[in-house]
Amino acid sequence: MIRIDNLTKTYVMGDNVIHALGGVSLGIDRGEHVAIIGPSGSGKSTLMNVLGGLDRPTGGDYRFEDDPVADYDDDELASFRNRRIGFVFQSFQLLPRLTAVQNVELPMIYAGIAPAERRDRAVALLERVGLGSRLENRPTQMSGGQQQRVAIARALANAPDLLLADEPTGALDTATGQEVLALFDELNSQGLTLCIVTHDTEVAARARRRVAFRDGLIVSDDRNAA
Amino acid sequence: MPHDPRPLTSSAMSPLELVRFAVGAIAAHPMRSALTSLGVVIGVAAVIMMTSIGLGAQQRVEQALSSLGTNMLVVRPGAPRGAGGGFVRGGGGSGASLTVDDAEAMRTLDGVKAISPAVNGGAQLVYDGANWASRIEGVTPEYLVARDLEIVSGQMFDQAAADSGRKVAVLGQTVVRELFGEGVDPVGQRMRIGPIPFTVVGVLGEKGQSGFQDQDDIVVIPLDAARSRVIGRGSGSRGNSVNQIYVKAVDEDSLYRLEQDVAELLRQRHRIRPGQEDDFNVQNLTSIQEAAQSSTATFTILLAAVAGVSLVVGGVGIMNIMLVSVTERTREIGLRMAIGARRSDVLTQFALESVALSLLGGLIGLLLGVGGALLMSKFGDWPAAIPAWAAPLAIGFSTFVGVVFGAYPAWRAAQLDPIEALRRE
Hints:
Oligomer: heterodimer
CATH superfamily of chain A: P-loop containing nucleotide triphosphate hydrolases
CATH architecture of chain A: 3-Layer(aba) Sandwich
Number of helices of chain A: 7
Number of domains of chain A: 1
Radius of gyration of chain B: 34 Å
Largest sheet of chain A: 6 strands, mixed
Number of domains of chain B: 2
Number of strands of chain A: 10
Strand content of chain B: 15-25%
Distance between the termini of chain A: 19 Å
Structural class of chain A: alpha/beta
CATH class of chain A: Alpha Beta
Strand order of the largest sheet of chain A: 6-7-8-3-9-10
């Protein structure tokens, strides 16, 4: 589904040139559950931003279902993020003045889905992540684990091909972190392709494939035996 | 999940949703939104009140000037003082240079509709113990036409009555009110002007203030009666001299030519050589009206411009708050971009927000401005003419202010880098 070839990303900061990605090649197939691991500054977040269409690579090729994402303009990237990618962030990134349902509806608004249909879908998604009783709650009225479930429901709103999660348990205590990870396992078992960026070895251990980064390069790529 | 080859380029989003985003953001901070709009509220209210005042003044001036008579020349004895001529002037120079004969001579000129020589002065009026000092005009019957006057009761004296020296008078409304009382018809009553008894034969219609003079405080009597009995211009010179000659032109086109012709005729008759100063002056009331109208129009524009400055200040207030809002909501903008908002969606959302704030202010300002103008005309004894275009003006200007001053903050929002924006605390 995803194929990147010799992907590079360099930042110029004053006189320093930082090679965040130094020529990375990787393929991810539909239905995989991948953990991208490595210390901070290793390039794993940069890779996630490029995979999610938030950032453009400096060089190399990125194809998503054979579509040349590396060549997309801003508007095409926006549509790509809207329809094919679901993001889950460490800090949830819910809009505080909106209810759970309204937060989940947001990506569907940008996709142009009619109000009645998107509300039905938002309610169904919140029920699927176990928040059927908190539909009209605002983020401030919910625990961290509940907020992250709302964020996951939002990430699933437009039925994405790939769910990208950046340290999804980083702001949660161990127990609620486990619940969120269990939800990810469940979603993956239903066919969703998952890619989780983490430096938490426990999180990485639950994935079926671990890609390790160091200094902008892949240093290991190992899979569980099927 | 099945892959569905959805197009990636079309903007699927309904613009209505962007309006809802903008309204939602405004409603989330009601106090801040109200204060932000306040500048535009004040600006629009000020523009509407000021133009209403200006237009009211304009209408009052027009009314006062048109009551003086249209397409009319006033010829007075005495040299014109300076270029342009003042509106009110004393006799000046040789006080007796105009005569009834001069007036008769003007009848031969083209474009004359009516001519009335007049003498005037003040006199004490007495009726049944009531006293009133008023202005007396001794005129010919044509005076009515020359000055656009109308009779509301009785009639104007005719030429025969004037010639036979009858002591008849036509009264203005103020004189009727002061001497006879409100609502009384004085036609047929006998009164005294100074020591002389007169019979009231008619009452003039209401003319109103002309700015400096109550035009209804007047008594109109035949020229001969006025000269011989009431005002008595016995002071030397020719016996048929007059204080002014009213000349009415048939229309505005002939007015200006007539003005030249009258002056030319009088120079001939008075044997004034080229280069010598005239011993009379001709005032064109229409040109005075036009000058006054253009000066009140300037006054209105000036008031509106001053008020417009506060609208600009209101716009700067909106820009300021929108910039704060963009900074505060950097993470929201990053998130919206991450889940699929295009830069143009973000731009439109924030631009709509500032337009909505400004429009809200404009509508409230419209209500306040119209209300204020109405209150002013009710209690302030000031005519306020609320222009019909007040509403479209308020809506148009406030939208314009919202677009102009919202453009930069919205552009800033749209230029944010989503990765940076999401990282911002």
